[in-house]
Amino acid sequence: MIHEHHVAPGDVPRLIAGILWWENDKRPTDAVILEAVRGEAARAREIDDFVNGRAAPSKQVKGAAVGPRQFGFIDSATFAGGDYRPNWLIKNVLVRGQPGVIAGPSKALKTNLSIDLAVSLAAGLPFLGKFDIPNRMGKRGVTGDDGQVVMVESEVAGEPAKVRVAVVSGESGAHTLQETAHRVCKAKGVSLASLNKHLNWCFTLPTFSDFAGMQAFGAELAKLEADVCIIDPVYLALGDIDARNLFEAGAAFRVVSEVLLGAGCTPLLVHHAGKKLEQGQPMELTHLAYTGLEQFARQFILLNRRSEYRDDGTHDLWCRIGGSTGQGGLWSLHIEEGTINENFSGRQWDVTVQTVNEAKEDRVTQREQTRAEVARGKMRADGTRLIELIDGSRESGQEAVTKNRLRELTGFSTARVAAALASLVDEGIIQEVEFVREGGQGAGVKRRGFSRVPK
Length: 455
Description:
This protein has 455 residues and is α/β, with parallel strands linked by helices. It has helices at 12-20, 30-51, 76-81, 110-123, 174-188, 192-195, 211-224, 246-262, 293-296, 356-395, 403-410, 414-426; strands spanning 88-90, 94-95, 100-104, 135-143, 149-160, 165-169, 199-202, 228-232, 266-272, 299-305, 314-323, 328-336, 350-355, 430-438, 444-452. The strands form four sheets. It has a nine-stranded mixed β-sheet with strand order 7-6-8-9-3-10-11-12-13, with helices on both faces. A two-stranded antiparallel sheet has the order 1-2. A two-stranded antiparallel ribbon has the order 4-5. The longest helix is centred in the C-terminal third of the chain and has 40 residues, at 356-395.
């Protein structure tokens, strides 16, 4: 049947995946299978035609790598001498020319962090205030052993490389993006307007399954000379694609990669995590919702909440950074945004980035501080009770109260009474005095006790 309908052998896995995906457990009829073969074969040929430059319309994106594939081999000597090092967009975070993903569950600030990233790249300022943008490259003369001056390319000190960024959002809305961008810019000491054409915004998402539309989208990015394109969110841009089908989703993400990279633009897709990711657990690529993105992402920023959000504008997050070039690390983010006022303003963007060990040390310190504060609270309560008894004894004509009597009246342990008394003495509230207490037959007995310090 496959040969009868002109399906190439390479299309067979795609066909099988499409045929086997049924909502019920019944075996499909031959007519249904035949229709599935025809539909899947047509879809597979359409994708293959597009990525190999045969799709109509045939208008090519500037620099696009969507033409017929050439298989060029090189020998090991040539390979060994080549320089294949990537270029950093953000040091130890993102490199140029590799598809990436920014992902996390709800309330993990995916969009906000993507805006921080966009502003950082456009302004040449550290991402999250922590990760540096590389300096721009320039030519300088170097004198060789033979005395000849050779021009070499190297970083220009003190001049971070500003790149052009396109942010394409179809979910947050213009006001939310603008308010967030203003806050991020203020925190970095720049104005949003000053970024001008280095940071461009679009509120219409491309559709990954619309091949002609993706070509047009790539052409627009080429016109902008965009170095990075952030698309937020993925699920609204998929179009007519079964996100659970690896072959369909994979082909769509391949189109995104080829078109954007062909336009000289590094794609970063903002996506959500699957339901299996638990709060407090650092996110992994395997937690990505849908299929195909794990294979698409050559680099990633994965977020998850460390603790429950309490609607107070305070966010504690895990941030896992990684990529195929070897960059990687797990970081703790503490972000203070504040809450919005009736004028839709009043929020901030205050980010603290720590290593895992630093975060653990902070948690230990916070626990110790909490325990100390609880102990101080108990001590204050104990002291208040003792003062009440000391004042009461004075009103009844007693000059002072002994430690044993205070222990009997409160039910506190000896150590607890002693600690509270020592604290009150140190604070200058009470004093230890020697006084005479009447004994049997009117005889006076000298005792030591505690009384108020005279005002």
